[in-house]
Amino acid sequence: MSLGLGVIGCGSVFAGPYRAMIGRLSAEGRVHVSAVYDVDPVKRHGAAAQYDVDGDLRGPEDVIEAADVVLVLTSMNEHGPLAKAALEAGRHVLVEKPMATSLLDAAELLELEEAGPGLLVCAPHTLLSPTFRAVHAAVRAGEVGDLLTARARYGWAGP
Predict the structure, then answer these.
(1) Which of 97, 110, 34, 44 lies closest to 69 in space, CA to CA?
(2) Of residues 94, 87, 80, the one with CA closest to residue 22
(3) What pTM value is reported for the model?
(4) pLDDT for 66-99, tens place per residue?
(5) Which residues contact 72 (CB under 8 A, 6 or more apart)?
(6) Torsions phi, psi for 69 (to 5 deg)
(7) Could you tell me the residue ranges of all domains in the chain?
């Protein structure tokens, strides 16, 4: 069974890791892109042409309606509201980090996921990336000695 994948946000995050992931899952017959939307019409139409879907959707609500699984890849301030709308519509949601910009909004997303049929997943590729897994394995194996403190930075500081 191929799940309809709706993409909200067709910028650099979409063009990077997600495009490759979608390609692999599509080749396996697990997903097909059913809708895309970006506020930038050039990005929206480019992604729509790549996946042979309608490039003239009115907004994220059209993507949510057309998809089984919604990818929220927009600017951080939009993650929470868009994930909420998709969960309320009964869709599965994969939202980029952070899933919301406040703890209250994040808690509401968890409550919606628990109460509804849709699953909420937050950017698993980051935690499961080969780089992070290799670092974790090296630390656990004692290859870097005893850790006294650590600092990591990934992406940007956000709004």
Answers:
(1) 34
(2) 94
(3) 0.81
(4) 999 999 999 999 999 999 999 999 999 999 989 9
(5) 8, 9, 78, 79, 82, 83, 86, 93, 94, 95, 96
(6) -125, 130
(7) 3-124
Q: CATH number for the 3-124 domain, one of 3.40.50.720, 3.40.50.2300, 3.30.200.20, 3.30.750.24?
A: 3.40.50.720
What single DSSP character describes residue 149? Answer: -
Degrees to nearest 5, angle at CA 115 with 124 and 94: 20
How are beta strands 69-72 and 31-37 bridged, if at all? unpaired
Cα-based angle 149, 154, 159 (whole degrees, multiple of 5): 110
**What residues pair up with 69 in beta bridges, in sequence order?**
5, 92
H helices of 6-149, where? Answer: 12-13, 19-27, 41-51, 60-66, 76-88, 103-115, 124-127, 130-140
Task: Copy the structure tokens of residue 42.
Answer: 């050039």
